[in-house]
Specification:
chaperone; FliT; 3 helices; mainly alpha; rod-shaped; bacterial flagellum biogenesis; 92% helix; 132 residues; Flagellar protein FliT; cytoplasm
Length: 132
């Protein structure tokens, strides 16, 4: 009986460590995605959609973990990890807003550049014509 309890506790501890390790890996990947967005200044909305789908997969994994019976200590670990996820989601949301604002500015700058180039070409054409 004592051996069974010890084995059960050891398995529980292994499950907690495995769950914690798995969640840390997911949070690390999420942080890496945030960093990539920030440094690469993504210009395609498809890339943002990919990031959001990866985040959705992370949530599905969390739901699967919760579905298994967890001990009180496992629940505490999971609560801590969920709090970390919430904090990362807030940061992700902030970075996404910054990215969207940046993308809007880039589009406007490209439009302005094209307009100025067209105007310049028109004026140069008129100037050359007037010189002839």
């Amino acid at each position: 009986m004592v051996r069974s309890v010890k084995e059960f506790e050891a398995r529980g501890n292994n499950n907690i460590m495995s769950t914690e390790h798995s969640m840390r890996n997911h949070f690390t990947r999420l942080q890496e995605m945030i960093d990539i967005i920030h440094t690469l200044n993504l210009e395609e909305e498809a890339d943002v959609s990919l990031l959001l789908s990866l985040q959705s997969e992370q949530k599905k994994l969390l739901e699967q973990i919760v579905l298994h019976s967890l001990s009180a200590s496992e629940m505490e670990v999971l609560k801590d990890l969920l709090e970390q996820e919430r904090e990362l989601n807030v940061r992700l949301s902030s970075e996404m807003n910054k990215l969207n604002n940046h993308m809007t500015l880039i589009r406007k700058a490209k439009q302005s550049k094209s307009a100025y180039q067209n105007d310049f070409s028109t004026y140069m054409g008129a100037f050359i014509d007037s010189q002839e």
